[in-house]
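Hi R.,

Here are the chain sequences for the assembly we discussed:
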Amino acid sequence: MAYSDKVVDHYNNPRNVGSLDKSRNDVGTGMVGAPECGDVMKLQIQVNSSTGVIEDAKFKTFGCGSAIASSSLATEWLKGKTVDEAMEIKNTDIVNELTLPPVKIHCSVLAEDAIKAAINDYRTKQGAGVSAETVSH
Amino acid sequence: MVSGPPPSDYFAIFGIEKKLALDLEDLQRRFYSNSREWHPDRHARASAQQLAWAEEASATLNDAWRVLRDPVARAEYVLKGEGFDIGEQRGKDVPPELLEEVFELNMALEEAREGDANAKSEVVRALAKFEGLLSEIDSERDTLFVEYDAASARDTLSRLRALLNRRKYLQNLVRDARATLA
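And here is the predicted structure of the full complex:
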């Protein structure tokens, strides 16, 4: 089965590979994995906490071409979106954009899970940050 | 001499009850003794039908021996017989705290492949840790075996399947890591 041109492009030139400082309060980290293929995906967002806009996104994925392409595309889409808008990204959007075949749909699910996990981590940190400030006052 | 069509069930062909915790020495004794009994030489004067049954019994016994002597294959056989889908594995079975370590190991493996000597020692360390986890999983598996044999609870089998999925995941990882170090 051949990969689509877009998958090949993202695989050969993955966008936004790398990592952000996960200890920072404005960085959310999502780590997900799929045992059936051994894929592991780390996706991070850096959010402007006053506007809620995602200013940077990075990923690192160990897995097949479709998993790498799905997370690479996800980071492209995340930048410039607000956290609420990012929450709306669906795996089917990724499937359509990359024309993933049915056997590779789980890769897009993994990417959606990673986005949600990163956002949840960011929100948890923000919540925790607020209460920590309250306590210190 | 075989007096009727042999069972196709792997436990029945050994003449034992379905159990997850098996005495392997007993299993081996039964394997040899049944193999001898069903050997074609012992059926020199048997009818064609009896010889066919004996051959069928031998073939099932060989398959059963391969499966039942291996704890993982044995558990999968029982799970399958109870209607669990062995192929279906979900990401939930890998706990997030393990995921972090899996990711770190993958990072170290990548760096080691690129020739980073420090990364190699990190892989060795991680490998030892994951091998330790594997043996923990194996003793947890043996506990679940005993639990299932005592009560035949479906819930025990669900937990067993989740455990085996985790084991498979870790084993793939350890295999990759070993291949990189070799």
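Residues 105-136 of chain A form the longest helix (32 residues). Chain A has one domain: 5-127.

Let me know if anything looks off.

Best,
T.
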